[in-house]
Design goal:
Layout: H1 18-30, E1 42-43, E2 49-53, H2 61-64, H3 73-83, E3 87-88, E4 100-101, E5 104-108, H4 121-136, E6 143-147, H5 149-158, E7 173-175, E8 181-185, H6 190-195, H7 200-213
Parallel strand pairs: 2-5, 2-6, 6-8
Antiparallel strand pairs: 1-5, 3-4, 7-8
Helix pairs in contact: 3-7, 4-5
C-alpha cells in the first residue's frame, strides 16, 4: 500500500494571526516547559474518521501538544472513543499515556490557542487552509465528526460549501456533495457538560452513530 501523503500543517512559529502569535509568545515566556505552538493532529492519515474540534485549550493541548489532552474536554471524548472501539488504552491526560486511536484522527479548526478560548473570525479563516489540506490528504476519509458550530462551519468552508446548505444541530447527520458523512455534536467542553447541554449519553449516541456507519478493517 502506498503511504498516505503528509498533511500540511502550520509551522511552529506560524505568523498568520498576530493576536494568537502574541498570546503564544506570552505563554512561552510564562511556561517554557509547555508545548506552546500550533497543535498537530493526532492519529493516522489512513483513518476513515476525522474529529474536528475548535482550538487548543491553554492548559490542555497548548500545554501537552496533543488535541484534547490535559483539560476537561478530553475526558468525555477519549472515554467515548475507547468505549466504541475507536481508541485503545487508557486516557490519562498525558500525551505519553500510550493511548492510540483506531481508524480515527483528531484535529482542530484552529491550531493555536486563543486568549480566553475565544476566536476571531479572521483567525478561523486564516487557519482553514490547514484543515482543507488535511482533508485533501486523508485518502480513506469517510466521516467527519464536528464538535460545535464553528467546527461544523470550518468543515463546510474547507470544502467550499455554503454554510447555509447544512445547518448545525446536535445529532444531525449530513451527506456532503462528495459523499462524506458530516456528523454534528455539541462541543465536549466543561461548560457544555457541566450545564447539562451535553450529557454523556448524548455524546455517546453521536459517536455510536458515526462508528456504525464507517467500515473499519
Amino acid at each position: 500500500m502506498t503511504p498516505a501523503p503528509a498533511a500540511a500543517a502550520p509551522p511552529a512559529d506560524c505568523p498568520l494571526c498576530p493576536r494568537l502569535v502574541e498570546y503564544r509568545q506570552r505563554n512561552r515566556a510564562a511556561n517554557p516547559g509547555w508545548f506552546n505552538a500550533p497543535v498537530p493532529s493526532f492519529g493516522s492519515l489512513d483513518a476513515p474518521i476525522l474529529i474536528v474540534g475548535l482550538a487548543p485549550g491553554v492548559r490542555g493541548a497548548n500545554r501537552t501538544g496533543r488535541p484534547f489532552t490535559g483539560d476537561h474536554a478530553g475526558i468525555l471524548l477519549y472515554q467515548s472513543l475507547i468505549r466504541f472501539g475507536l481508541a485503545r488504552g487508557e486516557y490519562r491526560a498525558d500525551p505519553n499515556d500510550g493511548l492510540t486511536l483506531i481508524g480515527t484522527r483528531i484535529t482542530n479548526a484552529v491550531r493555536c490557542v486563543p486568549p480566553q478560548n475565544k476566536l476571531e473570525p479572521g483567525e478561523l479563516a486564516n487557519c482553514n487552509q490547514f484543515l482543507a489540506s488535511e482533508l485533501r490528504n486523508l485518502p480513506n476519509l469517510a466521516a467527519i465528526l464536528a464538535l460545535g458550530l464553528h467546527a461544523h462551519n470550518a468543515v463546510l468552508i474547507a470544502h467550499n460549501i455554503r454554510r447555509a446548505s447544512f445547518t448545525f444541530a446536535h445529532g444531525a447527520l449530513h451527506t456532503l456533495p462528495n459523499d462524506l458523512l458530516l456528523a454534528d455534536s455539541y462541543h465536549v467542553s466543561r461548560l457544555n457538560t457541566n450545564t447539562g447541554r451535553l450529557t454523556t449519553e448524548m455524546f455517546e449516541a453521536v459517536v455510536r452513530s458515526v462508528a456504525s456507519r464507517v467500515p473499519r478493517a
